[in-house]
């Protein structure tokens, strides 16, 4: 959340190029949509917003390339739906540093990065391989709090 303003002022084309991606109109469009709100955006919401301009397969490929190149990270919301948040740290290709806790609102299902709260180190039994750690704090977001 803290880095949101920085990203709004970012030159998206430059951001794409510095992550090894050509700044195509579709990629710029998707990146712009992902950074519209403080909260992460779900794949279905992106489809709804961009469906007329970008077909599903293309959108899927763009999101996969963003994730691979370290531009966005994926969080699963309370329904198990994939949501995407812009990477706040200096993530690079196949190397994400977004090991932070996410806040999920139990009313509106919005997902927020709590970039300051890092997940603990997990030591695994022999021959176990760690792929990711997901820790979610669940509660009421500020918007829903107002409506109570
Ligand atoms: Zn990342
Ligand atoms: Zn909410
Ligand atoms: Zn995050």
Automatic annotation (TrEMBL):
- Residues that bind Zn(2+), according to the entry? 105, 108, 141, 144
Biological processes annotated in GO: negative regulation of DNA-templated transcription; regulation of secondary metabolite biosynthetic process
For the keyword Transcription, the answer is yes
Cofactor notes? Binds 1 zinc ion per subunit.
Under the heading Gene3D superfamilies, the entry gives: 3.30.1490.190, Winged helix-like DNA-binding domain superfamily/Winged helix DNA-binding domain
**What keywords tag this UniProt record?**
DNA-binding, Iron, Metal-binding, Repressor, Transcription, Transcription regulation, Zinc
**Residues reported to bind Fe cation:** 96, 98
Q: Which GO terms describe its molecular function?
A: DNA-binding transcription factor activity; transcription cis-regulatory region binding; zinc ion binding
InterPro entries (alphabetical):
FUR, Fur_C, WH-like_DNA-bd_sf, WH_DNA-bd_sf
Task: Please list the cofactors this protein needs.
Answer: Zn(2+); Mn(2+); Fe(2+)
Query: Could you say which protein family the record assigns here?
Result: Belongs to the Fur family.
Can you say what this protein is called?
Fur family transcriptional regulator, ferric uptake regulator
């Amino acid at each position: 959340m803290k880095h949101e303003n920085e990203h709004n002022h970012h030159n998206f084309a430059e951001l794409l190029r510095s992550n090894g991606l050509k700044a195509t109109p579709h990629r710029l469009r998707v990146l712009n949509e992902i950074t519209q709100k403080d909260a992460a955006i779900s794949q279905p919401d992106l489809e709804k917003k961009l469906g007329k301009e970008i077909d599903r397969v293309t959108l899927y490929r763009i999101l996969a390339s963003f994730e691979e190149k370290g531009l966005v990270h994926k969080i699963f919301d309370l329904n198990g739906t994939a949501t995407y948040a812009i990477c706040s740290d200096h993530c690079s290709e196949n190397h994400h540093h977004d090991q932070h806790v996410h806040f999920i609102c139990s009313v509106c299902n919005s997902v927020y990065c709590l970039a300051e709260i890092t997940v603990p180190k997990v030591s695994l039994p022999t021959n176990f391989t760690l792929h990711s750690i997901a820790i979610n704090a669940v509660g009421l977001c500020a918007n829903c709090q107002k409506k109570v």
